[in-house]
């Protein structure tokens, strides 16, 4: 049996429909069910918060995880990432008002992604204060809580609606498949079978 931790939210329906296109079926699928099975193919899906996917995989509770690159970077965990999926494409960016510049004065950056932000700032040798928020990050510069934000941009609509613009790209994001280190060695046949189906769809 293979257990897959799947990121809830924006990637969820695309991840499930990708697996369905690969031939898996989830008859118990519903908005509220957090654990669904494809008994015929011995697959179990756990529906978890995106940032929790790497934790389930790293701990070995799940053999496989499907989440955005951002969740993997933010976990700080080292996971095998054998496959990028063709959806969930977006970017982690620094955004602010068009005249924003990192300058001498200590900048305040609001974000849901403190690890990604810290890595970006240290790669640019920028000293700034990080304010960790849990959502609605675009509001922070508008009301004066922060000078800039580090956040995900997909369509760019949320930035635009708040008069913000992209200052720099931190990294590109897509849906990613990650695998537990032990499962990678002990469940080779099952994983091979699973990845063959995914590769086949990717190549078609
Ligand atoms: C994400 C992200 C941005 C928005 C970007 O937030 O943090 O706020 O989507 O999407 P766009 O470029 O298509 O406008 P999410 O919807 O997950 O909500 P949250 O702010 O409450 O975390």
From TrEMBL:
Catalytic reaction annotation: 1-(5-phospho-beta-D-ribosyl)-ATP + diphosphate = 5-phospho-alpha-D-ribose 1-diphosphate + ATP
Residue ranges constituting the ATP phosphoribosyltransferase catalytic domain according to the UniProt record: 50-193
Keyword DNA-binding tagged: no
Root EC class: transferase
UniProt-listed Enzyme Commission number(s): 2.4.2.17
GO MF annotation, one: ATP binding
Record key words, sorted: Amino-acid biosynthesis, ATP-binding, Cytoplasm, Glycosyltransferase, Histidine biosynthesis, Nucleotide-binding, Transferase
GO cellular component labels: cytoplasm
InterPro entries (alphabetical): ATP_PRibTrfase_cat, ATP_PRibTrfase_CS, ATP_PRibTrfase_HisG, ATP_PRibTrfase_HisG_short
Pathway: Amino-acid biosynthesis; L-histidine biosynthesis; L-histidine from 5-phospho-alpha-D-ribose 1-diphosphate: step 1/9
Transmembrane segment boundaries: none
Alphabetical GO biological process terms: L-histidine biosynthetic process
Localization (cell): Cytoplasm
CDD domains reported in the protein's UniProt record: PBP2_HisGs
Function: Catalyzes the condensation of ATP and 5-phosphoribose 1-diphosphate to form N'-(5'-phosphoribosyl)-ATP (PR-ATP). Has a crucial role in the pathway because the rate of histidine biosynthesis seems to be controlled primarily by regulation of HisG enzymatic activity.
Assembly and oligomerization: Heteromultimer composed of HisG and HisZ subunits.
Domain notes: Lacks the C-terminal regulatory region which is replaced by HisZ.
Assigned protein family: Belongs to the ATP phosphoribosyltransferase family. Short subfamily.
Record's protein name: ATP phosphoribosyltransferase
Organism for this UniProt entry: Fervidobacterium thailandense
């Amino acid at each position: 049996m293979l257990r897959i931790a799947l990121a809830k939210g924006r990637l969820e329906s695309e991840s499930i429909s990708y697996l369905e296109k690969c031939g898996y079926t989830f008859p118990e699928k519903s908005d509220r069910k957090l654990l669904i099975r494809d008994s015929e193919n011995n697959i179990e899906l756990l529906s978890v918060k995106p940032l929790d996917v790497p934790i389930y995989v790293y701990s070995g509770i799940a053999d496989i995880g499907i989440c955005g690159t951002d969740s993997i970077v933010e976990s700080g965990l080292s996971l095998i990432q054998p496959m990028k999926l063709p959806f969930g494409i977006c970017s982690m960016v620094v955004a602010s008002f068009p005249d924003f510049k990192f300058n001498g004065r200590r900048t305040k950056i609001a974000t849901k992604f403190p690890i990604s932000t810290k890595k970006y700032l240290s790669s640019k040798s920028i000293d700034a204060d990080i304010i960790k928020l849990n959502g609605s990050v675009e509001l922070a510069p508008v009301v004066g809580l922060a000078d800039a934000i580090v956040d995900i941009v997909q369509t760019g609509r949320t930035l635009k609606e708040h008069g913000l613009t992209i200052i720099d790209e931190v990294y590109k994001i897509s849906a990613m498949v990650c695998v537990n280190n032990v499962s990678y060695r002990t469940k080779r046949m099952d994983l091979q079978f699973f990845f063959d189906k995914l590769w086949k769809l990717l190549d078609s």
